[in-house]
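Re: the multi-chain job from yesterday

Posting the exact lines I submitted so nobody has to dig through the queue logs.
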Amino acid sequence: MGMIGGGTDAFIGSVHRLAAFMDGQVELVCGALSINPDIAKSSAQLLYLPEDRTYLNYEEMITMESQLPADQRMDFVTIVTPNFAHFAPAKMALEHGFHVVIEKPMTFTLDEAKELKQIVDKTGLLLCLTHTYSGYPMVKQAKAMIRDGVLGQIRKIYVEYPQGWLSKLSEREGNAQAAWRTDPKKSGKAGSMGDIGTHAAHLAEYVSGVKIAKLCADLNVVVPGRMLDDDGAVLLKFDNGASGVLMATQIAAGEENNLRIRVYGEKGGIDWKHEDPNTLLVKWLDQPVQVLRAGANYGNLSSYALANSRTPGGHPEGFLEAFANIYRNFTRTLQCRLEGTEPAPEWLDFPRVEEGIRGMAFIENVVNSGNSDTKWIDYVV
Amino acid sequence: MGMIGGGTDAFIGSVHRLAAFMDGQVELVCGALSINPDIAKSSAQLLYLPEDRTYLNYEEMITMESQLPADQRMDFVTIVTPNFAHFAPAKMALEHGFHVVIEKPMTFTLDEAKELKQIVDKTGLLLCLTHTYSGYPMVKQAKAMIRDGVLGQIRKIYVEYPQGWLSKLSEREGNAQAAWRTDPKKSGKAGSMGDIGTHAAHLAEYVSGVKIAKLCADLNVVVPGRMLDDDGAVLLKFDNGASGVLMATQIAAGEENNLRIRVYGEKGGIDWKHEDPNTLLVKWLDQPVQVLRAGANYGNLSSYALANSRTPGGHPEGFLEAFANIYRNFTRTLQCRLEGTEPAPEWLDFPRVEEGIRGMAFIENVVNSGNSDTKWIDYVV
Amino acid sequence: MGMIGGGTDAFIGSVHRLAAFMDGQVELVCGALSINPDIAKSSAQLLYLPEDRTYLNYEEMITMESQLPADQRMDFVTIVTPNFAHFAPAKMALEHGFHVVIEKPMTFTLDEAKELKQIVDKTGLLLCLTHTYSGYPMVKQAKAMIRDGVLGQIRKIYVEYPQGWLSKLSEREGNAQAAWRTDPKKSGKAGSMGDIGTHAAHLAEYVSGVKIAKLCADLNVVVPGRMLDDDGAVLLKFDNGASGVLMATQIAAGEENNLRIRVYGEKGGIDWKHEDPNTLLVKWLDQPVQVLRAGANYGNLSSYALANSRTPGGHPEGFLEAFANIYRNFTRTLQCRLEGTEPAPEWLDFPRVEEGIRGMAFIENVVNSGNSDTKWIDYVV
Amino acid sequence: MGMIGGGTDAFIGSVHRLAAFMDGQVELVCGALSINPDIAKSSAQLLYLPEDRTYLNYEEMITMESQLPADQRMDFVTIVTPNFAHFAPAKMALEHGFHVVIEKPMTFTLDEAKELKQIVDKTGLLLCLTHTYSGYPMVKQAKAMIRDGVLGQIRKIYVEYPQGWLSKLSEREGNAQAAWRTDPKKSGKAGSMGDIGTHAAHLAEYVSGVKIAKLCADLNVVVPGRMLDDDGAVLLKFDNGASGVLMATQIAAGEENNLRIRVYGEKGGIDWKHEDPNTLLVKWLDQPVQVLRAGANYGNLSSYALANSRTPGGHPEGFLEAFANIYRNFTRTLQCRLEGTEPAPEWLDFPRVEEGIRGMAFIENVVNSGNSDTKWIDYVV
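And the result, structure tokens for all chains:
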């Protein structure tokens, strides 16, 4: 693995490394870790990178690595730069034959996302998008149950993602994370809807198996002086006729990171909270609620849930393990491809360029709706 | 207390009686308990009503009671009939000098509600509307904290009320409760929005102290064959600039009666769930969450919270006690009026005709918005 | 109902009245509400008692009431005095033909308890002991499931009752409740073990259906200056071979009233907490945990659970309703007896003189064990 | 890192590897992964070990590694064999100059533990004992608060560890984990008390800072045919006068792995559950409960809590991260030693040979007490 971005001054880069290393199958071999040369070098040292594979920008890294013998060069590149700096390195990496792991939202604009898909299609390489929350075993359990029809026809979807860390104008108080995420030049058209709304939208479609068809958005800039939405709520219509509500806010003072999804069908519903990620509540129309737990040996957990946990029931796995599941499934699929074998269906289950396009389309549509006086707008991709 | 409706074939009538009797201050002295004479009589017998005060319709009851000497007649009348049969007996009772307790929604139409207010204003009598959930001590605690500015300016309100009991077409399967509540001739313009959406809207305004100014509603008839909305979600704008989301559904299979409200201000938020009504979570921007508990002797619970519980912390009070609080505050206020004394401010805190108008306006506005292609409509009263 | 004790300066008396009145079947007709004549009179006035049935001591009350015509005298007497003043009025009431409701622990000594049983047996009258927690519907559900063998052979019982309100020497700081409960002359041989340990012991035997056969107790006086145990833990052996642990403490600073019981059998376990009394967790060896809820219409709740709730699932009932269930079952049984009919089995389910003897025996045995160097002592009744 | 035990047929070995690898600071360089040569070889292959450092027994590994140049040999050895096979390799490794990480319980007997301490003292090498649960940030927070006197004098400690996985005689049904853990020849004198009771005892002493001074144990063999205790409860007296209860069972059908500790002092208490490990409830005598969360930026979390989490509040870390904390603190301390620098106090916080002796003493004392008719026995080390 080579890494673009993720120096010591970043947040998500270290999470990617923890996740990638956890299962002992991935090694960091090179990096262009910062656009600041000093940080790029010092970060590389801390990560035991050799000097000759410590690069100062992504162009250099991709060029140089592609000139190494096939068995010595990096197998894939991970891109953890701010949103505006996703597309160019991803494109160049793919065009030089490298598989790509990329942070969400996938690109800066929907057009870039579509172009990336064309390159992926043309090159036949893998692109893995780290929608972390879809890596949790009990999220996969929910998806499997719904796919298997256990809840009947899906009728209602509530997905919410309240955070409170942008309750003040932190971008003016030296918070680097806040600074780029609220800057339309770095983050894109949307603020909270891009940062966390895309996670919520992905989760809703991933778990339920239905797609957003129409939406009606209320986007707000709550904190005076902020340049992008920091709060919003969206009414949803899905392509199967179900309706839903998506709430994403970063000004819910006192909230941490409480992504939650509830999906109701004719026969029952599921309820998953990031706060307690190893539990899936299954609610039934005419039976007691059941508490499904990750790693439990009931004999009826989905193979997708089981394949994405490492320990027996009662040994909580968390955010890093969910993240590692994305990496593990991606790298197993990659390894199968390198070995010419067929990956297990569970390993193929990681977000890709198509999900990246959905995410960018979500941003476009939700911003358009937020600016519109018409109630429902079609979800255009 | 005299009662109109609430025979043995009804649901909410017995709840009213349990609530009214609990504190030992109210006695049922007469009733017109059903339009079915047999049920009216047998129900009266079970409740130990004397035969001469067992009436067969409300006109008879109000007429006869008003002819009794002042110290023998009922002090007030409780109306627990279906929505369409609220207005006429309420009007007649007030016009004959009786105070009124009435189930929500207050009337069948907004116009009726406004007329009722005129009568209340003219007669000077008390009208108490049983928005039960505002009777919980920790709801009152939340209201008090917000009123006192503890959370700062209010920014975001989420209120949700998921139920699952109408997931099937139960109104065709002999469920009497379902039958009238889904019948536009008995229930009114709205189904779930009238039945439970009004509770949610009242709670949002009661707790936050701000009023809905605009809304954008998505109303759905999910179960085929149903005549009124059984599901909906509403985007809200409040008169102080805050935004919000209201969700009310009766087709969330597996849900019981999980009303929940979250209100966020600049400095923190509150989170109250009917499922655990004696707890109020208070979330802070920069301090740990606090768990406030009904009846606790911290020395910093609001007098409104303390006045509305009967037992020390750790002795859970529930739905019936919340209901009884509405009755207790109403009857204490009534008693003060009868005695010519000044009620404590905590006793004056029960929902009245003004809240009844807000509820009927909510129904009107939410139905109008549901039928409209325009995104935001002004909340007209 | 007549009441002995329970004046305005007492705690549990008002709880008894709330519970008794709730279902509209019981009326307070007379009382000897305090040994302080002023309080006795003023308390009676507040409760609308007529002057001629406001008594200044229990002897007077029982004597006078027994001289009234049968259809005018009280049907039963409720005794809510401190422990040392239970036996004499209970004895006198029974000997004058009155049924009795009595607070736990039933008497001051085990000998008194045994004598009371002789009188009950001789007179054939009803004695109802208010072990409140056995009135909760989900406690009854747990009992029913275990009785029906759903969990298989019972193996392990944990019952705990942590409170924190005696963490300081409150009995010296004007806390009247603390004063008598920590005074061996008023409370009896045990402090916390008598006050709350007896509840825990009763609950363990009630739910599990097995009886304590041996025990090993650690009793502590934690707060310096206190005269009775304020903390303790007891290892238990039951008559079926199961083992258990009972923990009762009043010095767990910050705890409210968190009685909890867990019972495990070969096939699964149940877990009930007073904090969330409408929920019963059922844990299975090889299936997901189930969340049973009071009032739910699954079709598989026990008739004992259903008969002891008043509202549908999702309408929390609490401590007062559990208390009221004891009264309701007792008074229905009493009414059947007066009418010469057969009570439903669910109505017969209230604690009686036998449970009172078990409670007093628990106190005796636990104090003996606390003072002994021998590990296990036989539970002697 | 070299590893002894932990082949593909084992459980805890892979957990050690996940934990060791997570932070990208540890590499597996050699292993004697199984006493079965085939498993030893195939496991090594899966872990990318070179053939020349794939050993078939620990003697060979330690001998060979010690003959490598200092900068090529393993830095430390991790021992993850069953209990009976801990001492010999640990002793040999230390005597050959290798630092040691070892699973709990540290040895097979208390005598072995004491001998190991002598060797550690003599060689000056590090021995790290993986009492995982002490690696959780909120456990460290609890310890820090108690050490800082926030709760006042400690009065009561409840620690419980219910599991259900040995509810049947699984050791006769092909469950390899059950087989050795219930075999006195492989596991030692105690079953559940050694396997999980030692974790509970360690946690109690670690968090509270006080030491067990006396105990009174009830050990049970619940499942017929089992050779060691599968259930037990222990009354405790601590050296500061506090009392406590320790419950450890493996026959609580339906329980997963729910270690929980509650510690109460004069001013309040803490409550930590493994089920929700990122939360620490802090209960106060006269203030609302506070909910402390791992990774939160309140400004008042202990440096020990903060140093042991990797992500911001709301990103749950779990069992593997807690395990990784033990490794991370150990390896940082080791690295400092190698570099001649001073480790931060937070890094020195990992369990060592002294805790290993306490654990073995716990087993000895608890078994002795279980066999004794005397109530209290002194805790002898």
